[in-house]
Specification:
By secondary structure, this protein is of the alpha+beta class. The protein is 50% helix and 13% strand. Keywords: Membrane, Transmembrane, Transmembrane helix.
Length: 385
């Protein structure tokens, strides 16, 4: 029995030793786990975000590139763009004070309004739509920038045309509206981040809209009427110049210039002021037609194309002398003759043209804001010196 027990114990020890040897061999010949294999419990290790431009991909340089392009366009095309916008606005609105004030207000507020719309809808836009939104915003910003004077410049020096004052008023109050919009955008964004729960209603946007409309109303109310109508360009029914008294006998405002001259030689005009005056020292009757164009270059070009001897339509019959000139955006056509329409003698030309010169100077003085009486010269002067 004892020998049998010792034999069984020896066999058990042999089996344990063999199992230990096999386990050791498996550990030695085992292939180490791949370092990329994720732990089924811990999961994959997080990949740190790329630093520098690689983080944003090809869009990283769009903002600085856009700023550089904006500055370059402002320097190269700023003056031409501002003039083109002013001429187009004058043509669209008829150069009225209200219309040009609204245009000036929109020029400054559109970038801010567009930024608000872009921020609200940004998360819903596709990649191409976002790119288009940025480009449109940069275009609005460029348009506004060319109408903002520098440190050593004044706003009135940037603008041209008879409605420049109204446009400047709109720009100033548009700046106030844009500032309110930007401040409101920051406030609303900060409140939304601090209290992410939904608000009770669109009270904030409504207040911003009310403030914007308020600045627009103030701009329209404070805009000065430009001298583009009879009431503003030639308001006096009677005026004195160089010792003579002239009395207005008629006045008409026209949108366009139909019926002023035969044909289409005045095409491209915006509006026309027609007035008639007579003098107290003679029987001279002056018929002035002031034709407004969007820009000074257009006015000069049209005047250069006028045929010689062009006679105004719609004035009483009889012989007249017609003289043409330009002042700013205006082409002036002055026709003068005797009240009874009789033939003009050579001795009468001087005092007839003197009356026409007085009326033209009065109109020009209203345009530039400085009334100056003409001086007699080159045989043109009053009938009674």
């Amino acid at each position: 029995m004892f020998s049998s027990s010792r034999g069984g114990r020896r066999r058990s020890e042999d089996l344990v030793a063999r199992a230990a040897e096999e386990m050791t061999a498996e550990r030695v010949g085992a292939t180490p786990a791949a370092p990329d294999t994720p732990d089924p419990v811990r999961g994959a290790e997080p990949v740190p975000p790329a630093a520098g431009p690689a983080r944003f991909g090809p869009h990283a340089l769009l903002v600085p590139a856009g700023i550089v392009a904006l500055v370059a366009l402002r320097i190269v095309f700023g003056d031409a763009l501002r003039a083109r916008i002013g001429e187009s606005a004058c043509a669209w609105t008829g150069c009225t004070g209200t219309g040009m004030a609204v245009v000036g207000w929109l020029l400054i507020t559109l970038p801010a309004l567009w930024a608000v719309v872009a921020v609200v809808l940004w998360s819903r836009l596709s990649a191409p739509a976002r790119g288009a939104t940025v480009l449109v915003g940069l275009a609005f910003l460029l348009v506004a920038w060319v109408h903002v004077p520098g440190r050593r410049a004044a706003l009135y020096l940037l603008l041209d045309g008879p409605a420049a004052g109204a446009t400047a008023t709109g720009i100033r109050w548009g700046g106030v509206g844009a500032g309110l919009t930007v401040v409101a955008l920051f406030v609303l964004t900060a409140r939304a981040e601090a209290r992410p729960r939904p608000t009770r209603g669109p009270i904030g946007p409504a207040l911003v809209a009310a403030a914007l409309l308020g600045t627009l109303a103030v701009a329209v109310a404070r805009a000065e009427p430009p001298p583009v109508t009879v009431a503003e360009a030639m308001p006096e029914r009677t005026f004195q110049a160089a010792g003579d008294t002239l009395r207005r006998t008629g006045g008409t405002d026209l949108r366009g210039c139909a019926g002023v001259l035969a044909g289409d030689v005045l095409d491209g005009c915006v509006r026309t002021v027609r007035v008639s005056y007579t003098t107290d020292d003679s029987d001279a009757v002056v018929h002035l037609a002031a034709v407004l164009y969007p820009g000074e270059r257009a006015a000069r070009d049209r005047r250069g194309r006028l045929p010689r001897g062009a006679t105004q339509l719609g004035i009483p019959g009889g012989e007249t002398i017609t003289v043409t000139s330009t002042t700013g955006n205006w082409v002036l056509l002055g026709s003068v003759g005797h009240a009874d329409g009789r033939t003009i003698a050579e001795a009468d030309r001087g005092y007839l043209l003197w009356a026409a010169k007085q009326v033209a100077y009065r109109f020009i003085g209203r345009q530039v804001g400085l009334l100056v009486a003409p001086s007699a010269a080159e045989g043109i002067g009053p009938r009674t010196p």
